[in-house]
What we know:
By secondary structure, this protein is an alpha/beta fold. Helix content is 47%, strand content 14%. It folds into 2 domains: 8-54 and 153-320, Rossmann fold, CATH 3.40.50.1100; 56-147, Rossmann fold (3-Layer(aba) Sandwich).
Amino acid sequence: xxxxxxxxxxxxxxxxxxxxxxxxxxxxxxxxxxxxxxxxxxxxxxxxxxxxxxxxxxxxxxxxxxxxxxxxxxxxxxxxxxxxxxxxxxxxxxxxxxxxxxxxxxxxxxxxxxxxxxxxxxxxxxxxxxxxxxxxxxxxxxxxxxxxxxxxxxxxxxxxxxxxxxxxxxxxxxxxxxxxxxxxxxxxxxxxxxxxxxxxxxxxxxxxxxxxxxxxxxxxxxxxxxxxxxxxxxxxxxxxxxxxxxxxxxxxxxxxxxxxxxxxxxxxxxxxxxxxxxxxxxxxxxxxxxxxxxxxxxxxxxxxxxxxxxxxxxxxxxxxxx
Length: 322
């Protein structure tokens, strides 16, 4: 097992922390989605957490680790396109720690509003996530605040609980599709697979308009790539995280790239089939499975609706474009 990956007792311990706030999310084998894919399709509903995305699990375990070490900071700062910020905001509020989150200009309005509703002080800075992250790090140094990273072992431990739930609930899974933003979701899937000693294949999904992880995995080292996706903000990462890359390299079966058009179609499909709302990154997993459906016949496929936080106007536009 990789040094920074949680083992089974660590994941089970993380689940106890998570379940103080909410219970395990459901996973369903949707009839219409399975029909569309041409094989059994299970969808894990991380859009059903209290912040509408999987990230909250990591925020809870990250703060629990800070508390256990006796080092809860006077203030936390982080950067996000939305879901990580809600996660940190939720956990910071639970521990009565002031929280400042930096987002890039033009970030999703409803994600911004959701963070503010959790008591977050929101700062808009930078043209993309990377610029926001660099500014947040500088701000943390200036203020003597604790900078919460986007990728960390204590975040990973919490996120792994969702894949652990999924693999326990559907032990017959042959392959799962996992979107990659900063990498915590995919690394968590690997952790759960290894902890439960499963043989399923893990397929990483990246935006075709944000290819740092695809390029980096192909090169075996971090390769920066421009971000032009208009829809998959949860995967809008310009520079892969080296620690995440080290975990993904030996364990991912392959990478699938999905375009904004394919993501939009998956958002429409998921809405029609399940009447659940998926944000761009939340639909990417299903989009990738659909792209590869010809080779999935007879297999039990796991996809993840990992977030449903899409602005109303964006969703209306995507659904109307059918």
